[in-house]
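[Automated response] Your request has been received and processed.

Submitted sequence:
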Amino acid sequence: MSRAMGLDIGTKTIGIAFSDPTYLIAQAHSTLKRTQLSQDLAAVERLIQEQDVREIVIGLPKHMNNQLSDSARRAQSFGAELRKKGYSIEYQDERLSTKSASQVLMKTGVRRENRKKHVDAVAATFILQQWLDRRSKQQ
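Generated structure:
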């Protein structure tokens, strides 16, 4: 069964999350350490194939005044590369998702040194869950 993929694209890592097949719940999957664009795209594409991904939701980090940040433009560029390969790309405002992810990890007792390993995947989960919730309200 197909599912959606959430991506939190950073300069050093990419957080990855997947929906369940019913498109109700997002779950953290992993954090990919970035190397070169071609290798990053290949790694994401392998996961797309393995998980039977139908939609890809990319977090769009905007400034609080709703203007696109440099990070948002980099995320759009990554999304454009995936779109060239024929994938369906959507963007989700991700303001404060990393901060929220850090707070959740802190509250659940994850040690500071381990938080960095998980924060991007948890942020991708927040991004994807927001998109799933918005999608279910529109149907």
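Summary generated for your ticket: Residues 45 and 121 are 17 Å apart (CA to CA). The first strand starts at residue 3 and ends at 9.
If you did not submit this request, please reply to this message.
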